[in-house]
Design goal:
elongated, 22 helices, about 1500 residues, eight-stranded antiparallel β-sheet, seven-stranded antiparallel β-sheet, alpha+beta
Length: about 1500
């Protein structure tokens, strides 16, 4: 609470002193000390804490004004009237009506209302001020309101619920008097007005007062002439001492109720305020006045009590009231068992003493009892009846007349004058009736009860209390205003007794009773139980209902009762014995069949009888009896016995008598399936005659009808319906009474039909003819098998030039549906072949030309002209009216331009090529390629373009084809001689041009046989029947060549031959292709009377078959052969095409084992290169002198031999197997080492905490995944398409993540060892994880999206060499390695500063550090970049050794060799060794070789690192002290 800047209120200090005095033994030195402290604190703080808070938020009464008007937001009740404003005046007055009340105080009554706080002649100066502040009940001022309410409640016990809503605090601070006299020059006092709107109070607080020369008034005047009050001493010199007096127990504080005239009775103190001294005793010049500061003593103060009760009625309770006594009364009773009896002691000269019993009578004892507040005495005891006292004996020979107020007023021998011993101490027993005489009491007791609900309680010690807490308060105030309190709480706890819910239980099996268990009732609000009940849990109960009642008795005579019902029900059904089973009887006639049975017997567990109800339930009338016999017809008859016991439990004995007829029903007139055509998905109506069902039993047959369709149809059992497109199964299912079934099912199929006429191109008539036969296919009838056409014309009819419409009709007889379609037949005329003569160009030839188009002369401008390839003349074939239809016009000659001296291949690319100049262009190209060895990509691309133009001219001239083949042979030779490779896209285009040109010649000019040094062509037309035994092409040795084999890349000395029988093919061939005999099965009908045109091409090598992928691990071993059949697509053949190749020379057995049979698969786009594929091809078991392949299609074939892309040694041996073996063994060992390392680090908590260890775990996990994917998929997934791409992409990703974690490791190592003040980045591991795992994923996605084909590799599953590999893999690795190398140098430089015990140890440790750090940073990957030129094998060997064993090195350096790892796993090893000593080499006595370079304090500047290094395995420098061992 806020106490105006003071330490605590005076009331609290007084209560603290009372508490100390009542709780600590009187003889204890601590008692004296604490009491002294309390007195000092009380004396020093008595007036420091008297004022309420003022200053902040207060308004100032101006110096120039006597009073200031203050508006009040609520009505302030002041006796007979309510006021909404008041005046705060400088002269210590608050007025309610007049602004100026005068400087000099006046005696009451007055004619106007006011509060005279300290009405004197006050002079405002700059040193003092008068302020006021209004307070409303808001949260910030709650403490001030609480303080004011506490003062009021303690003084007025009848207003304990008072709660103020408004306050006014007026403070006269440090003001001087106009005419001061005596001590003190300034005055500080305060008035606090408090109201809740109904009640109002005024609190006067006096802290410092100056004595005025004039009279001073303190009190209040209602202004009505009758209601007023002046504090005793007002208008006299004694008023100055009001600062040391009080009417509520707090020195310097006065409290008045100001809303009623009955103020005398509501005040808590009614005794005279100045009884402790008289006006004659007061010396205005002296301030040495003695006051009583000791609070009253309390005896027999009740303690808190808890009473059980109910919320529905209050609880009565009585107690012995506390007894208050005060030392100021000068008498007390000691040694008695109750406050009303004891040894009489009086207070004199600062100490207590006894009274001698000489002359001690009941009259003397009554004076003592009345002095203590009792009505009188009942006994006057002699001879120390309540024990001998100690100390002085003050009074003797007492003689009271009985009217004295105090014992000290009676006649006695004088203080301390006696002739007694303590054995003669006088004692009394006072009257203990409840009528206290307050007029004689020295302590005034204010009583009150504070509770949340209204209770009735009395000061005499009895009352009735509701549920809740009621604080009973006795406030004792002596005549000096000292207070003491006796407060205790009466708590009425609501108790309730809650019984279990009603219990319903079945009887035990076979019995009419059951044992019932339940939990005891729940007693809420009380801890101890005292139950009595009419039954106990576990008792046995019979069938029926019984009430169980519980009672809970309390010491206060309260009894709680609850009860519940226990109902035992018989839920066990009657028992049935000898219930018959179902029976089936068979008949083959309509007669009934008799049957008998033994009737079942019913009994019940209760021993009472069971009522049995019998019945027979059948579809026909049967005769059956409860006694167990009857006659039954076909069908099921359910015989029922229903037994019910007295509790209504049922049990049944039901059985069925089934009479079956074994003959199924007959079906007649079952409709057949029907198909109905429709168009536009219309529904179709259809009717049928329903089938007829009958049964041999003569009884009706139940027929179930249904339509099962994919769409909703409407169909009816009586034989009609509408059906949508699709199949609808109509089902009639007939079932007789014996459940014999027969079916009639048929399908109504509605099919959507359509008629689609052909679309014909314009048909040209033969040159010079006016008509032409036009052929077409019949219209296509969809949704229907067969046709029934009528048409206006037929295919093959002759049509004159022009356009004519042809109409087709299709009739369906099922529902008279007609479909119609039509198309146009257009015939155009052609001008006939012709010749003309031009004066400039001579004879010109004109090919047949369609009427209405322009013809170009066959003759074209020569290549050495400006317009090379353009026609020398043009001519129109114009249309004409019937009967001519067409005619030639005169030709128009064209200029060829100036002649050119030379022409290049680049220029010919732009020359148009037609049948007229195809030969010229082809011959020119062959000559150019023969005379020039330029095999550059641009040159070959130009040649490819020109060859494509020649093919598009569609000239089948043999000479053109020979020139084309010659050109291709020249290109191959030029590429071979330049030892280069042709562009993959360009070379594929050249191969296509060769195949197309040979096809043209075969179709137009007959057979082809061309042989060049690098290419052979054989194309023949044969009778299909001659290929019935298979047809073969073979490249064989020429007889003139003898046994000489052609050189590699050359076909010199060989020729191509054809064979109609496979057995005729020689065994020693360069290459051969055999078509299967079943080829005839794949020929279309058009070949029935046509010849079979087949072409065979042999390429000396794979010069023109480039995949565009460099550094392949396999190559074409020998020649490439091509096979094509005109007009026939040879795919998915049942019998394979057999291709034989001569075994490559100088090939080892290992090389031969790697040979694959492949075919050339052209790219899907024009600008895409082709590739070798093994789909549909396999290698056949053949002798070692040849390689035989079988393929289910025909195209370009070759065999690939795996050479791993490696160079060979001089002796022909390859070091590839050794590198493979090293990679596999090293990878497997690394997997084991990394797995063990991860298991150890993850399973032991100490090893997985800390930033460095977490980085190390991530690094090991990424490296382990890389090894696993490499070993499992790099070779095994090749050739699997998407699977190989997935493995390659995963290896790419894991390689980058491993390198990134190496970079994170290097960065952490640099921070730990090199930097003076290591970083402490928040969320370091989260950021590191996002960088190391996330950035490689982004790079992989970009690379995979841009170059997916780079991951498609038939030889191994990894990204192929090329731009994608350089940018997506090698460049990031190179940057990371550069970063790590620089970090390695800086770290090693820092570590070299560590001084060991000896030079040998120093060298050893530095080597170990270098090896461990290089392993973590991945520096061994640098060997891969050094594998160039002559050092390839050496650095590849080092790369394989170090990187395949990197996991092993990491496991050894950072797991097996680390002492903290060995210490951590030692307990687990002992368990594995079954308790035996199973130790690792742990050297605890060795001096740790930590890499601490300095011991400088963290806040000291140093040029060397101040932390230890664990090489990223142990905790970071800020987490733990770590080392390398």
């Amino acid at each position: 609470m806020d106490y105006g800047g003071q330490s605590c209120p005076n009331e609290f200090i007084q209560r603290l002193c009372v508490f100390i005095e009542s709780r600590i033994m009187a003889s204890s030195p601590m008692t004296i000390l604490l009491l002294a402290v309390c007195l000092l604190v009380t004396a020093s703080n008595a007036q420091d804490d008297i004022l309420f808070p003022f200053g902040e938020g207060s308004s100032l009464v101006p110096y120039g004004y006597v009073c200031t008007k203050v508006s009040i937001p609520i009505s302030f009740p002041f006796f007979v009237q309510n006021y909404t404003s008041l005046y705060v005046c400088h002269h210590g007055v608050i007025s309610f009506s007049q602004q100026n009340v005068g400087d000099h105080a006046q005696a009451f009554p007055l004619g106007f209302p006011l509060l005279a706080v300290y009405w004197s002649h006050i002079r405002p100066t700059s040193q003092g001020n008068v302020t006021y502040r209004q307070l409303h009940r808001i949260s910030s001022d709650e403490a001030i309101f609480d303080r004011a309410e506490t003062v009021i409640r303690r003084a007025f016990g009848s207003h304990l619920q008072f709660k103020a809503s408004w306050m006014l605090i007026a403070t006269w601070f440090n003001n001087t008097l106009s005419h001061p006299r005596g001590q003190g020059t300034t005055s500080t006092f305060q008035a606090v007005l408090v109201t809740d709107g109904d009640l109002s109070f005024a609190i006067y607080n006096f802290k410092e007062l100056a004595q005025d020369l004039f009279q001073t008034q303190v009190g209040y005047d209602a202004g009505d002439g009758t209601t007023y009050y002046s504090v005793p001493g007002s208008m006299t010199d004694q008023i100055y001492s009001i600062i040391n007096a009080t009417n509520i127990g707090t020195r310097g504080r006065w409290l008045f109720r100001t809303d009623t005239q009955d103020t005398e009775h509501d005040l808590g103190i009614t005794a005279p305020l100045f009884d402790s001294y008289s006006s004659n005793d007061y010396d205005s010049s002296s301030s040495d006045i003695t006051f009583d500061t000791e609070p009253p003593t309390i005896n027999n103060c009740p303690t808190d009590v808890i009473i059980p009760g109910l919320s529905t009625r209050p609880v009565s309770y009585t107690w012995s009231p506390p007894f208050f006594s005060d030392s100021s009364a000068g008498v007390r009773l000691v040694g008695g068992s109750v406050p009303s009896e004891g040894r009489v002691e009086v207070f004199y000269d600062g100490q207590w003493g006894t009274v001698c019993d000489d002359g001690w009578y009941i009259t003397d004892a009554s004076v003592v009892c009345r002095q203590l507040g009792f009505t009188g005495a009942t006994n006057a005891w002699l001879s120390a009846h309540f024990g001998e006292g100690t100390g002085q004996i003050f009074m003797d020979d007492i003689n009271c007349d009985g009217n004295e107020k105090r014992l000290q007023d009676c006649a006695f021998g004088g203080w301390g004058d006696h002739n007694c011993y303590h054995a003669e101490d006088a004692s009394v027993t006072c009257n203990t009736d409840r009528s206290f005489n307050n007029s004689y009491r020295s302590v005034v007791v204010v009583f009150g009860c504070l509770a949340s609900v209204s209770n009735e309680c009395h000061q005499d010690g009895y009352g009735t209390f509701s549920v809740g807490d009621t604080e009973v308060m006795y406030n004792g105030t002596d005549k000096s205003g000292n207070q003491n309190f006796c407060n205790f709480t009466i708590t009425v706890k609501e108790v309730n007794l809650v019984c279990p819910l009603n219990i319903t239980l079945p009887t035990e099996a076979g019995s009419d009773t059951t044992r019932v268990n339940w939990t005891e009732p729940v007693l809420t609000g009380w801890d101890e139980t005292n139950f009595t009940s009419t039954a106990q849990s576990g008792d046995v109960f019979r069938i029926g209902s019984q009430r169980v009642t519980y009672h809970q008795r309390f010491a206060s005579s309260l009894i709680l009762t609850c009860s519940f019902e226990i109902v035992i029900v018989d839920v066990e059904p009657p028992t049935v014995k000898d219930c018959p089973s179902d029976v089936t009887l068979f008949i083959n006639s309509t007669n009934q069949i008799p049957h008998s049975w033994v009737a079942p017997v019913f009994s019940d567990n209760s021993g009472q009888s069971v009522v049995v109800v019998f019945g027979c339930l059948a579809t026909v009338s049967n005769d059956c009896h409860q006694d167990g016999y009857g006659t039954f017809s076909v069908g099921d008859t359910k015989v029922t016995y229903n037994g019910t016991d007295k509790s209504g439990n049922l049990n049944f004995c039901n059985f069925t008598v089934t009479v079956k007829d074994t003959t199924p029903p007959w079906v007649e007139q079952c409709p057949d399936d029907v198909t109905i055509p429709t168009r536009l998905a219309d529904q179709v109506g259809y009717t049928w005659v329903p089938p007829v069902f009958s049964d041999n039993s003569g009884q009706p047959v139940d027929v179930v009808f249904g339509c099962l369709a994919t769409v909703s149809n409407e169909c009816h059992q009586d034989g009609n319906g509408t059906f949508s497109v699709g199949d609808t199964e109509v089902m009639y299912n007939g079932t007789d009474r014996s459940v014999n079934q027969n079916f009639c099912n048929f399908t109504v199929t509605v099919t959507e039909v359509g008629l689609t006429c052909p679309v014909l191109e314009v048909v040209p008539a033969s040159p010079g003819e006016n008509s032409s036969s036009v052929f077409w296919k019949d219209p296509d009838v969809t949704g229907w098998d067969g046709s029934n056409f009528t048409s206006t014309a037929k295919s093959g009819d002759v049509f004159e030039i022009g356009t004519r419409n042809v109409t087709y009709d299709q009739w369906f007889g099922v529902n008279n549906l007609q479909l119609t379609c039509s198309f146009n037949v257009s015939v155009v005329g052609q001008c006939v072949n012709d010749k003309t003569n031009d004066t400039r160009h001579g004879d010109l030839s004109w090919l047949a030309t369609i009427a209405g188009t322009e013809a170009k002369s066959v003759q074209r401008c020569e290549l050495q002209t400006k317009k090379a390839g353009h026609p020398k003349a043009t001519r129109n074939c114009s249309t004409a009216a019937s009967p001519l239809y067409f005619s030639w016009e005169d030709h128009v000659g064209q200029s060829c331009g100036e002649s050119e001296d030379t022409i290049s291949v680049e220029q010919v690319v732009e020359v148009p090529v037609s049948a007229g100049n195809a030969k010229e262009v082809a011959v020119f190209l062959s000559k150019q390629t023969f005379s020039s060895s330029d095999s550059s990509d641009d040159n070959v691309e130009d040649i490819s373009t020109i060859l494509d133009n020649i093919v598009k001219a569609e000239s089948g001239d043999v000479e053109v084809t020979e020139a084309v083949i010659q050109t291709v042979a020249n290109v191959i030779t030029n590429v071979q001689e330049s030892q280069g490779t042709a562009d993959s896209t360009t070379s594929s285009a050249i191969v296509k041009s060769v195949e197309q040109q040979v096809s043209l010649t075969l179709q137009q000019g007959g057979n082809v046989s061309i042989q060049q040094e690098t290419i052979h062509v054989k194309a023949v037309s044969i009778d299909p029947q001659k290929a019935s035994n298979g047809f073969s092409f073979a490249s064989v040795q020429q007889e003139s060549a003898g046994s000489r084999s052609p050189q590699e890349g050359s076909l010199d000395g060989t020729e191509v031959k054809t064979f109609t029988n496979a057995s005729e093919v020689p065994k020693d061939v360069v290459a051969s292709i055999q078509l299967p005999a079943s080829i005839l099965d794949h020929l279309p009908p058009a070949f029935a009377n046509a010849s079979l045109k087949i072409s065979f091409i042999v390429y000396a090598d794979d010069t023109l078959f480039q995949t565009g992928v460099k550094n392949l691990t396999s190559k074409v071993a020998g020649s490439v052969v091509s096979l094509a059949v005109e007009g026939v697509e040879l795919k998915n053949l049942t019998d394979p095409v057999v291709i034989d190749f001569k075994t490559p020379t100088n090939a080892s057995e290992e090389d031969l084992d790697t040979i694959q049979c492949t075919f050339w698969e052209f790219g899907s786009e024009e600008d895409e290169a082709g590739s070798w594929s093994t789909d549909g091809c396999k290698r056949a078991d053949t002798p070692t002198d040849k390689v035989s392949c079988e393929c289910n299609h025909a195209t370009n074939f070759a065999i690939l031999m795996d050479v791993k892309g490696q160079k060979r040694t001089d002796d022909g041996l390859s070091f590839t197997p050794a590198l493979d073996l090293i990679s596999q063994i090293g990878g497997a060992l690394s997997v084991i080492a990394l797995s063990l390392t991860l298991v150890i680090y993850l399973s032991i908590r100490k090893l997985r905490t800390g930033k460095s260890r977490q980085i190390f775990i991530h690094f090991c996990f990424s490296l382990l995944l890389l090894y696993l994917v490499f070993l499992a998929g790099v070779d095994n997934a090749r050739g699997s398409g998407g699977g190989c791409v997935f493995v390659g992409a995963l290896l790419h990703y894991l390689t980058l993540t491993t390198m990134m974690w190496m970079a994170v490791e290097a960065r952490n190592m640099y921070v730990s060892t090199v930097k003076v003040f290591p970083e402490d980045t928040p969320l370091y591991m989260v950021k590191a994880g996002l960088l190391a795992w996330g950035s490689p994923f982004i790079l992989l996605i970009i690379t995979l999206s841009a170059a997916t084909d780079s991951y498609r590799n038939e030889h191994y599953c990894f990204i192929s060499p090329g731009l994608a590999m350089y940018l997506g893999l090698l460049t990031p690795i190179a940057l990371i390695l550069l970063h790590n190398v620089i970090t390695f140098i800086l770290v090693m430089r820092s570590l070299l500063k560590v001084k060991e015990a000896s030079r040998s140890e120093q060298i050893t440790k530095r080597l170990q550090n270098a090896v461990g750090i290089s392993a973590l940073m991945g520096l061994t990957w640098c060997f891969g970049f050094l594998a160039i030129e002559g050092a390839t094998f050496a650095f590849q060997l080092l790369f394989c050794l170090f990187n395949s064993l990197q996991g092993v090195l990491v496991g050894v350096m950072f797991c097996a060799r680390r002492e903290e790892v060995r210490v951590a796993i030692a307990p687990y090893l002992r368990r594995i060794c079954c308790g035996r000593e199973c130790r690792l080499p742990i050297h605890r006595d060795e001096k740790p070789t930590s890499l601490t370079t300095s011991q400088t304090a963290p806040n000291t500047m140093s040029t060397a690192p101040t932390t230890n290094l664990d090489i990223s395995v142990s905790a970071s420098p800020r987490e733990a002290e770590t080392e390398i061992r």
